[in-house]
Specification:
Helices cover 48% and strands 11% of the residues. With 284 residues, it is of the alpha/beta class.
Length: 284
């Protein structure tokens, strides 16, 4: 059975955007309900209940070596910040209580590290068949013969072969592209005037050696690589390996959870049967 690796913060925020108003007895439950709905859909789509959950740490070892890391993120309004805080509380409940109570035994967070680091540490060089569920393109560097990436927002599966066809470079060199071109979403500065396409041309030896871009990389590329590689290459140094344990699902715990959080739609006959089949590993 293939292992599905969940970028849990991504799925959690997806649930926040679509289910933020949902409450039960004045307690926010939208993220919990939306998260569980999505993992059921993903599990049934890929015919696997072997789910591996990774979460981002609040602290960041990358910020320790580069304080500007992710400082470019848009400033939130007080209302948006409040929504995020409510969501994070539900993230914690999912990670510490709900998923383990349901029998998911592979739920991981490492202080100082991002979920991306844990994903890369888990899949790179490991035997098995893996599907990473994320919208984060940094994880393209984890594409291998046995590893695909599924973006639920785009409903797109990226394979190593497809990546090579679309980008013109092997996925294992993606972090070098990011190191030269930078990563705007994470506030990692690249070389001036060097975007991803130019960096790819340089790395594939198709960039005009007489061009300003080529001379810029020759003169300043080593400095950019020294600064940026620790920020963009996965996994970050000293990320710990994680055990891959068997799950021990508990349908009784699921029923109690539905009552506790008012998730009545999960208890309807057809949907409950779907959950039962998912826990049993029965896929049509």
């Amino acid at each position: 059975m293939r292992t599905i690796i969940i970028d849990s913060n991504y799925i959690g925020h997806q649930a926040r955007y679509s289910m933020s108003e949902l409450k039960h007895e004045e307690d926010a439950t939208g993220v919990i309900f939306g998260f569980l709905s999505r993992i059921l859909t993903i599990g049934m789509k890929f015919k696997s209940n072997d789910l591996f959950f990774v979460w981002d740490s609040k602290s960041s070892k990358r910020k320790e070596i580069f304080p500007e890391y992710k400082c470019n993120r848009k400033t939130k309004t007080p209302e948006e910040q409040r929504e995020v805080e409510i969501a994070i509380k539900q993230f914690v409940k999912l990670r510490k209580k709900i998923l383990p109570a349901l029998g998911f035994n592979n739920v991981y967070l490492q202080p100082g590290y991002e979920g991306d680091d844990l994903i890369a540490k888990f899949v790179l060089g490991r035997l098995g068949e893996f599907i990473i569920v994320t919208a984060d393109e940094d994880l393209f560097q984890c594409l291998q013969a046995n590893t695909k990436i599924y973006n639920p927002s785009k409903k797109k599966i990226m394979t190593r072969k497809r990546f090579k066809e679309e980008y013109g470079i092997d996925s294992c060199h993606w972090f070098n592209v990011k190191a030269l071109a930078g990563c705007s979403s994470d506030g990692v500065p690249g070389l001036r005037g060097i975007g991803e396409k130019t960096a790819i041309k340089y790395l594939t030896k198709t960039l005009d050696k007489k061009s300003k871009a080529y001379q810029n990389i020759i003169q300043n590329g080593d400095g950019a690589l020294r600064r940026n590689l620790p920020l963009v290459q996965l996994p970050f140094e000293n990320t710990k390996d994680m055990k891959h344990e068997y799950n021990d699902f508990n349908i009784g715990a699921f029923r109690r959870l539905c009552v506790k959080y008012g998730m009545d739609s999960f208890m309807k006959e057809e949907k409950l049967k779907e959950w039962e089949l998912f826990f049993e590993g029965v896929f049509e």
